[in-house]
């Protein structure tokens, strides 16, 4: 059983608070400067801690950012993990459309940090590798929902669930980045409708 913060020793509570301070400072620094221009020195200064102390928790700014990115993406994963047990194609359509809306809306709501994520993926091998693992986690979760639909005679059984899941994820990610970067010439409602229509018409019976 995990102890609550109040049950931890003062030393452990202080350690947790120090780590939290570094992450908070990191988030602020990345949002202010972007990934490339942010430095570990800026983060440490903002966290009001020492270099030696900071390096106990994180080896570099990439590791700090990866932790922040994982926390952010866990919010997206909560959307992916929403209960998916439809009994009809119509129910599946409604659930899928809801997930797409939540996914894309969350990306827009977190636009500033998502822009830093996009930047970091392009310049940090560590962040890029972590993004690959995050992407694969989403794809596998989508495949689980597809297999459920196939096993319950809602979706076409001859289609490879993992392959369809990969295509579905990439379609959502593409529009996600367009919305985050304000590059889309389409409204979010039009994107949601198009994605859901194309996906369900191709996969479901």
Overview of the molecule:
The chain is an all-alpha fold and 205 residues long. It has 2 domains: 5-58, Homeodomain-like (Arc Repressor Mutant, subunit A, Orthogonal Bundle); 62-203, Tetracycline Repressor, domain 2 (Orthogonal Bundle). The protein is 78% helix and 0% strand. The protein has 9 helices and no strands. It has helices spanning 10-37, 40-47, 51-57, 61-80, 89-109, 111-123, 125-151, 161-180, 188-203. It is elongated and about 60 Å long. The model has no long low-confidence stretch (mean pLDDT 94).
Strand and helix layout:
Elements: H1 10-37, H2 40-47, H3 51-57, H4 61-80, H5 89-109, H6 111-123, H7 125-151, H8 161-180, H9 188-203
| Cα-atom radius of gyration | 20 Å
Helical fraction: over 70%
In CATH, the homologous superfamily of the largest domain goes by the name Tetracycline Repressor, domain 2
User: Regions with pLDDT < 50 over 5+ consecutive residues?
Assistant: none
N/C terminus separation? 46 Å
Domain HTH tetR-type: 16-76
Pfam families: EthR_C (PF21313), TetR_N (PF00440)
Protein name: TetR/AcrR family transcriptional regulator
DNA-binding region: 39-58
Key traits:
elongated, mainly alpha, 2 domains, about 200 residues, Arc Repressor Mutant, subunit A, repressor, Tetracycline Repressor, domain 2
Summarize the structure.
The protein is mainly alpha-helical. It has nine helices and no strands.
């Amino acid at each position: 059983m995990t102890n609550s913060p109040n049950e931890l020793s003062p030393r452990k509570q202080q350690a947790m608070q120090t780590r939290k301070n570094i992450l908070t400072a990191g988030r602020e620094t990345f949002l202010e400067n972007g990934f490339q221009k942010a430095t570990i020195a800026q983060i440490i200064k903002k966290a009001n801690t020492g270099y030696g102390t900071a390096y106990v928790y994180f080896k570099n700014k990439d590791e700090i950012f990866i932790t922040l990115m994982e926390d952010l993406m866990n919010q997206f994963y909560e959307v992916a993990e929403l209960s998916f047990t439809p009994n009809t194609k119509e129910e599946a359509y409604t659930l899928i459309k809801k997930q797409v809306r939540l996914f894309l809306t969350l990306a827009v709501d977190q636009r500033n940090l998502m822009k830093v994520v996009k930047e970091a993926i392009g310049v940090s091998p560590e962040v890029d590798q972590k993004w690959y693992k995050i992407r694969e986690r989403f794809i596998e979760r989508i495949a689980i929902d597809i297999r459920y639909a196939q096993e319950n005679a809602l979706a076409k059984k001859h289609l490879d669930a993992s392959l369809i899941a990969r295509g579905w994820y990439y379609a959502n990610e593409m529009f996600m980045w367009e919305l985050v970067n304000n590059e889309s010439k389409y409204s979010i409602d039009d994107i949601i409708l198009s994605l859901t229509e194309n996906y369900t018409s191709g996969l479901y019976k």
